[in-house]
Specification:
Its EC number is 2.4.2.17. With 283 residues, the chain is an alpha/beta fold. The structure holds adenosine-5'-triphosphate, 1-O-pyrophosphono-5-O-phosphono-alpha-D-ribofuranose and magnesium ion. The site of adenosine-5'-triphosphate has 16 residues, from helix 3.
Length: 283
């Protein structure tokens, strides 16, 4: 099975990291190599531009691909969105000069909109029944309203800095995007594809979770359990050195609850509390 992943740009590093954490270690990647093997002999990685990945998957050059939802939509290919990987979060927005007359989508009627996403943009205006001209550019879209190339743009924003620097204001949201695992419809149910999706999901599910280990007085076990918000019940084990009074307790806790939980645990007699990260969580 082949997975297409971004070869450069902002999605490259986090994608490699999530694959590594899912246990799909990539072997001997010389920079800019097109293909790489993984520790799983059945899984090969194909490096491609984020924008080309939907095409690679649709054509069968790869079976699944990791890229932004914006890229999948722009490609127009029918792909199955298997999993949200939770990074590359951004919005495609309609934006126009701050001090101009465009304050709602309808104001663009009869005018020109520049974008790197012509298909998404045309679909958006078609759905709204707004007639405007869409011109495709390949970068620096934010400049076009200032050089009389366009009246408005449809472009990616996340922090809003680029729009602000270019004195553009958001008029409407066109699409909320994040990085997804996509499959070609004919392989979406393939056991190997499901195995990869499960492994990647386990990484996402482990994020923001911590594993707590502690000793607790056996007599206060119910109090200890009561303050552990964890998933399901905690694991309780006898302590090996034969101290009958103490048990070892392990639990998975939301990262945001760790601080309060430790305070509460101490107050019910827990000691030697260890907090560790979780690499994967297969539910
Ligand atoms: N500012 C941003 N914040 C979050 N996600 C973003 C942002 N810009 C782009 N993305 C996401 O990353 C994807 C690829 O963008 P990126 O800039 O990494 O690639 P690129 O511009 O195609 O790179 P290159 O031009 O170097 O090939 C976008 O399609 C979008 O899903
Ligand atoms: O809201 P912001 O946080 O400012 O992010 C938005 C900017 O990020 C992307 O550009 P990128 O940095 O990928 O540069 P590029 O145009 O070279 O792809 C996008 O094309 C916007 O220009
Ligand atoms: Mg970019």
């Amino acid at each position: 099975m082949r997975i297409a992943v971004p070869n450069k740009g902002r999605l490259h590093e986090p994608t490699i990291e999530v694959l590594e954490r899912a246990g799909l270690h990539i072997e001997n990647t010389a920079d800019r190599q097109l293909y790489a093997e993984t520790v799983d002999p059945e899984v090969t990685v194909l490096f491609a531009r984020a924008a080309d990945i939907p095409e690679y998957v649709a054509d069968g050059a790869a079976d699944v691909g990791i890229t932004g939802l914006d890229q999948a939509r722009e490609s127009g290919h029918d792909l199955v969105d298997l999993l949200d990987l939770g990074y590359g979060n951004c919005r495609l927005v309609l934006a126009a000069p701050e001090d101009g007359d465009i304050t709602e989508p309808g104001d663009v009627a009869g005018l020109t909109v520049a974008t790197e996403f012509p298909r998404i943009t045309r679909d958006y205006f078609d759905r709204k029944g707004i007639d405007c001209e869409v011109v495709e550019v390949t970068g620096a879209t934010e400049l076009t309203p200032h050089v009389d190339m366009a009246d408005a743009i449809v472009d990616i924003t996340s922090t809003g800095t680029t729009l602000q620097v270019n004195r553009l204001a958001v008029v409407d949201e066109v699409l909320a995007s994040s990085v997804r695992l996509f499959a070609r419809p004919d392989v979406a149910d393939d056991p190997k594809v499901e195995q990869v999706a499960t492994a990647l999901a386990s990484v996402i599910d482990a994020e923001g979770k911590r594993y707590l280990m502690m000793n607790a007085p056996r007599a206060r076990l119910d109090d200890v359990k009561a303050v552990l918000p964890g998933m399901g019940g905690p694991t309780v084990m006898d302590v090996a050195d034969g101290d009958e009074e103490q048990v070892a307790v392990h639990a998975v806790v939301d990262e945001r609850e760790v601080f309060e939980t430790i305070t509460a645990l101490k107050s019910v007699g827990a000691s030697d509390v260890l907090v560790t990260e979780i690499e994967r969580l297969v539910e």
